[in-house]
Specification:
By secondary structure, the protein is of the alpha+beta class. It is built from 5 helices and 11 strands. It is globular, with a radius of gyration of 17 Å.
């Protein structure tokens, strides 16, 4: 068992850990694809327990309550990403990021427009020109503040970079917001270096009741797949109310 702390810096909503970041913490010591499931709000700036049990990573709070769990997953659970856009197309899509015009989570570690370089990731996905509605993209360059001793972006930061784009895929497709990440299955094939510009993409997959699924991917500017994921988002309001 290890004690860990999810610092305020790594928030999604102001009072909870960033879903992708926490899912990445659960996945970082497991090999291959991992399914991370979040079961409760992730408290910030307090001691949490991270335990390896029966091949899984389990995160609990001080009272023993389950916060999340990461388990090895089958690669078949991961979507095949669409062909990556060019860096120029991804840059143009990022300029259409709706978070620049409307307030979503301005201090979110991943997509918060109020965060500065080296403090947040500043991943700003927008509609990709000529693609289906909700197919979003942007550029992302890992800051040195989020690299390990080898100069590579850490696993949990890569998972965080792929978090919010799946949310915005549905925002752009349907013009509404209000959902929390429940489950993310992902794999990291190659960790980019600090300062290496990458292409982030996401696209909506399906909706079933209050569950929306999305695919996400990270590419090099040469088109090499670096990471990919499948997400399940839980809408905070029913679809009928969200559309009203």
């Amino acid at each position: 068992m290890a004690k860990i702390v999810i610092a305020q810096q790594f928030c999604g909503p102001p009072n909870s850990g960033n879903g992708g970041y926490v899912c990445g913490v659960l996945a970082r010591d497991l090999d291959g694809p991992v399914t991370s499931v979040l079961r409760a709000r992730v408290p910030l700036d307090v001691d949490l327990d991270l335990t390896m049990a029966e091949g899984a990573a389990v995160m609990t709070d001080a009272a023993g309550g389950l916060i999340g769990r990461g388990d090895p997953a089958m690669g078949s659970l991961l979507p095949d990403p669409p062909a990556p856009p060019s860096a120029e197309a991804a840059r143009a899509a990022g300029a259409r990021y709706v978070g620049h015009e409307q307030s979503y989570h301005p201090i979110c570690f991943t997509c918060g427009a109020d965060r500065q370089e080296g403090d947040g990731l500043r991943v700003f996905p927008g509609q990709l020109d000529g693609a289906a509605a909700g197919h979003v993209a942007c550029l992302w360059t890992p800051d040195a503040a989020f690299a390990d001793a080898d100069g590579l972006a850490t696993t949990e930061v890569i998972w965080a970079a792929l978090d919010c784009p799946g949310f915005f895929a549905w925002v752009v497709k349907e013009g509404r917001h209000g959902a929390l990440l429940g489950t993310m299955t992902g794999e990291v094939l190659r960790r980019p270096s600090a300062g290496e510009t990458c292409i982030v993409t996401a696209w909506p997959l399906a909706r079933e009741g209050r569950k929306e699924t999305a695919g996400v991917a990270l590419f090099s500017t040469d088109g090499d797949l670096l990471a990919r994921g499948h997400q399940v988002w839980i809408m905070s309001v029913p679809p009928q109310a969200a559309a009203a």
